[in-house]
Design goal:
single chain; 422 residues; alpha/beta; UDP-n-acetylglucosamine1-carboxyvinyl-transferase, Chain; 5-stranded mixed β-sheet; 4-stranded mixed β-sheet; 14 helices; 25 strands; 31% helix
Length: 422
């Protein structure tokens, strides 16, 4: 077990290069079950990626990591594939359920453990299963596993999701890849990560059209032999460091990004008073000692992302007045609030809304991470706090942030990793 030790009140200056997107890489890795030979570039080497690679190896996909290039080479040329995704490999990672679609459409059967991940809400797989059933799969749940088969293969159809779901959209896309005929998905998620999966599937041989929140897929069995794909940047990591710059930035450069994808994040920080300039693919951000309150609601893309509300909440503690966050995606996404209160934050929760009172001086304390984004919000709080902050259970952090301490250290933060003393 490890922990982070953070000494706050250090100005941040320098450049941070944003890694590839974890949330884009995971569904693309699941999609490699459909492929023969794939080279993925700009891959973040974080715990969730290693877990997905272990799952693919278990299924029968050969994987090789080129650490110096941040590339992964994958080959699926075995005839005997294991169509099982066991609990031990899916329990910590929500994205494990994404192997269901490609296994079903290619091998006509799958047995996949119900997924785990962060404890931020129920996040059921109902919408995933709804889509697969519409495509012709026979599905039952037994002993914590989804057992699915399609003896005659899947058939294209029209599917309208009752609510927008990134994971269900991705699984439906993967299942429709080799389904007979045309599949039309309506009320889809159109996050940049979903569009990156679509770009990968096009390279693989699929014909896909995106019209607003409608996606049309023509099923195919013609698969390109070799595919190269560069994963998009991680917009949540970029947003996290933009908030860090707004909190403690003297002059912070955020690189390896596409600014137009970060439109809502940049607009929100500007409204609060953060100093931001954009030049080509670099965003310059620095703090403003007089921050303004703001009200936001989390929404599917292009709305404000739920994965960034914990980080923004830390910035709100330094704004004058009462800021509000309405959480509309996950019901348990305020679990970081008790830990921020331990550091002196003044926050009230009523139903789905958090009320943040500021400006408030934060004091370093020993705190505990409860999920991936909550853990990084506590890092941000530690960066602006007096005294030392000790962050426990940082395995949550390691699931989704690549080289966080190293990136912050290069920008003059006082942060280090330590082992627990027994």
């Amino acid at each position: 077990m490890q922990k982070l030790l953070i000494k706050g009140r250090r100005e941040l200056s320098g450049s941070i290069s944003i890694s590839g997107s974890k949330n884009a890489t995971l569904p693309i890795l699941a999609a490699t079950i459909l492929a023969k030979s794939v080279t993925l570039k700009n891959v973040p080497l974080v715990k969730d990626i290693f877990t997905m690679l272990e799952l693919l190896e278990f299924i029968g996909v050969e994987t090789k990591i080129q650490y110096n290039k941040k590339n992964i080479v994958l080959k699926n040329q075995k005839k005997d594939i294991n169509t099982l995704a066991p609990y031990r490999l899916v329990k910590t990672m929500r994205a494990g359920v994404l192997v269901l679609g490609p296994l079903l459409t290619k091998y006509k059967k799958a047995k996949v453990s119900l997924p785990g991940g962060c404890a931020i809400g129920t996040r059921p797989v109902d919408l995933h299963l709804l889509a697969l059933k519409k495509l012709g799969a026979q599905i039952k749940i037994k002993n914590g596993y989804v057992i699915a088969q399609a003896k005659k293969g899947l058939t294209g159809c029209k599917i309208r999701f009752p609510s927008i779901s990134v994971g269900a959209t991705e699984n439906a896309l993967l299942a429709a890849f080799s389904a007979k005929g045309i599949t039309t998905l309506s009320n889809c998620a159109i996050e940049p990560e979903v569009l990156d999966l679509i770009n990968f599937l096009k390279k693989l041989g699929s014909v896909i059209k995106v019209i607003g929140r409608k996606i049309i897929i023509a099923g195919t069995n013609k698969i390109n032999e070799k595919v190269n794909h560069k994963v998009i940047f991680d917009r949540i990591e970029a947003g996290t460091y933009l908030v860090a710059g707004a909190l403690m930035g003297k002059k912070l450069f955020i690189k390896n990004i596409v600014p137009k994808i970060l439109k809502i994040e940049v607009e929100t920080l500007k409204k609060m008073g953060a100093k931001i300039k954009i030049k080509k693919n670099i965003i310059y951000v620095s703090r403003n000692k007089s921050l303004k309150k703001i009200n936001i609601s989390t929404k599917p893309y292009p709305g404000f992302p739920t994965d960034l509300q914990a980080q923004l909440m830390v910035l709100m503690t330094q704004a004058k007045g009462v800021s509000k966050i309405q959480e509309n995606i996950f019901e348990n996404r305020f679990m970081h609030v008790p830990e921020l209160k331990r550091m002196g934050a003044k926050i009230q929760i009523k139903n789905k809304t958090a009320y943040i009172y500021g400006p408030t001086k934060l004091i370093g304390a020993e705190v505990m991470a409860t999920d991936l984004r909550a853990s990084v919000s506590l890092v941000l709080a530690g960066l602006i706090s007096d005294n030392r902050t000790i962050l426990n259970r940082i395995y949550h952090l390691d699931r989704g942030y690549e080289s966080l301490e190293a990136k912050l250290k290069r920008c003059k933060a006082d942060i280090k990793r330590a082992k627990y003393e027994i």
